[in-house]
Amino acid sequence: MSRAVSHMPPMRRRSLPVVMLLTGAMTMGAIAAAGAGGVRINATASMPRGLWPVQAGEPIERGAVVAICPPDRADIRQAARRGYIPAGGCTGGYEPLVKPIAARRGPGDGHARRGCRGRPPRGEQQAARQGRRPAARCTHWNANAVLRALPGCRALFILRHPCGQIASAMTGAAQRRLATAPSGRLSGYDEAATMEYAARHGVDASGFHALPEAARQAWNWRAFNEPTLAELGALPNVRLVRYEDLCADPDTVARSLFFFLGLSWHRQTADFIARSTHYQGVADYFSVFRSTSEVAGQWRRRMPADAQKAVRSVVLDSPLAGYWNDLVR
Known about the structure:
Elements: E1 2-3, E2 18-22, H1 29-32, E3 39-42, E4 50-59, E5 65-69, H2 74-81, E6 97-100, E7 111-115, H3 124-130, E8 135-139, H4 144-149, E9 154-159, H5 162-174, H6 191-199, H7 205-209, H8 213-232, E10 238-242, H9 243-248, H10 250-261, H11 267-277, H12 292-295, H13 299-302, H14 305-315
Parallel strand pairs: 2-8, 2-9, 9-10
Antiparallel strand pairs: 1-5, 3-4, 4-7, 5-6
Helix pairs in contact: 5-8, 6-8, 8-14
């Protein structure tokens, strides 16, 4: 069993739950660097998707959840080509798999990197007693109530340029890499809530349905991000991160985020960021390894000009437009 997770030294601060709030459809190498810092990203469907904290040196016992690298052989390569195994940092370019141990050949003395169970423990005190740092990746979810109730929780809110986020989501839907509703819309698209929000800003139902798809997605971007950031922005345990800043300088930004989250920084984390953010090979839609300097702005070349114009027509009046110079009137 190859081991994909490196041991992360104990935190110097009190153990804290970590919540990651992602509004975009894609994660990137700088975020996945958490894998080198004690958090494993699971993108496969066999176990709950999201971030799993890991522990080193745990005995391999029945029922334990471990992260393993699949062997580089024909059936695994075929599964990867069909999209069953995402790209990652294992030999062969595969994502480590998070699996429970069903049985063992013998008593032995093997050890593996062990993750937490499928859901985080109840409450911060129990988490601290168990020595765990629960982590959750949350997409399109306002965690305001949770973060107010658990002030010891640390949250990152990653905000991406609306054109970049919408272009990524539409590409994922076109490639059938993201779930879609029978209407063809992305499954995370809440049309009723989006229409209600647009109506409060002067766009009635008939006007909304007359908009091109990119403009409707832009209203969806506003309907979630504006009220969510208005609530979260005042909380001291929330850090707003621009996706573009993370792509432009992943090492510096990641260091500051690790410090905010109370996570230790070490050489393996820095090495993983360097390798995963300067990748020159072919990147899949969900690839962790990619060239982040190219990722953030590739929508400018690939997104049709009329779709970019439609998005801008909606977001230019957004209070969030000031985060990007090209959206300021």
